[in-house]
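Researcher: I need the complex structure. Ligand is pyridoxal-5'-phosphate. Inputs:
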Amino acid sequence: MLEVMDSKEFRKQAHVLADRMADYFEEISDYPVKSQVKPGEILSALPLSAPVNGESFETIMSDFERIIMPGITHWQSPSFFAFFPANSSYPSVLAEMLTAALGQQGMIWETSPAATELEQRVMEWLRELCGLPASWTGVIQDTASASTLTALLSAREKTTGFRTNLEGFTGMGKLRVYCSSETHSSIEKAVKIAGFGKNNLVKVAVDENFALISAQLEMAIKEDLKKGYTPCAAVASIGTTGSTAVDPVDEIGKICERYKIWLHVDAAFGGTAFLLPEMRHFAAGLEYADSYVFNPHKWMFTNFDASAYFVRDPELLIRTFEILPEYLKTRTRGLVNDYRDWGVALGRRFRALKLWFVIRSFGAEGLREKIRLHNSLAGWLKDRVSEHPDFELMAPVDFSLVCFRYKPKVLSAGEDLDRINASLLSELNGSGKLYLSHTRLNGRFVLRMVTAQTTITRDHVLRAWDLIQQTALKLSLKIE
Ligand SMILES: *Cc1c(COP(=O)(O)O)cnc(C)c1O
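Model: Output:
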């Protein structure tokens, strides 16, 4: 059996691909930001069965261009303003290529000492760069969802004296988890997976800025105690997904301390802002947290996936996840980190490499410059929305997200603004020129525009805002 590709051919194709990738980044604005394909369109272009004989790289690449590219939504486009970004950068892509070539599986120190020790160091760097408590210990997880699951499993074991790991949930009573009604869906998912049960997730009301009302949290805890339930964990958000609201972490932290509840802080998107000292007032109370997550794969130019998870007590984390089958017993155990005990998965990708490349290429100041630009672009957009008679700002703008809606004066009060804004969104995204997403705040349909792309400039935001106004006007003329 011949090798499918020899090193000569690999070298040739790798050069071709490098050029293709560079072309892609240079020409990314020529593509419709949101893929315009219909459901099933890509699937129907793919053969029902795998090929019997190997195919040439050229054939595969030509199908990639013909079939796959039209079905790509261009997350790296500077006019991608939807959801939260999963932004990337050249150094990150290059590191990812090396990662694939090395093919490391860093489950324990021995299987990749460099992956393990680089991870330790870059997590220390991140902790310092973001002004996080110096006593915290970090580990890379794949996603914020996995980080939060890890947090809730640790909380469960701490509260039950590690008995749930041994005996399951039998006889443990009802363990309760608290978060706000604006908290990300990954908390509910983790509550289900970790065995708490969805009915034991208590969603606390938010104030006019969509931040958790801490007095209501305390009331909920007291009520649960009266019923004989066991309060176990609370999740506070710094930068909710809907509107980047910030929960009062210091007040929540004090409550958690009083009732001996695990505090997990979810700063998946917003956490990157702590690179900026002037943003750290939003981190007040972070020292109360038992665990904390933010995603460099969202706003820190590190391509998906890389989630930074920090804990106050790594021993507790390890005790929650530790396994020690014979084949994993090593002579270095205890001297080094064996990250397989620091989360759900055994196998681990070498994610630290791209973080290292990114942090070193940008430098702390380079990263800060970008984040400042992104925040200022959102500030600029916020001012335009606020001063426009036919648009309405729907949430405070503290990070790089602006929540707004179209509210034309010409319409009577009975008009369905939700419907109009949904049409506006679909019209805008259908144009291929930009991509926005939406949420609901206070039950209202709201457009979300995030200005946090790696290559975004003021021009992209200016053009987007022009298009939004024009499209909205056209739409309202149609309605009249
Ligand atoms: C995006 C997001 C998550 C989920 O992130 P994943 O890494 O995709 O799991 C969780 N919490 C918040 C606040 C988010 O914005």
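Model: Summary of the prediction. The pocket of pyridoxal-5'-phosphate is lined by residues 84, 143-145, 184, 186, 237, 240-241, 266, 268-269, 295, 307 (CB under 6 Å).
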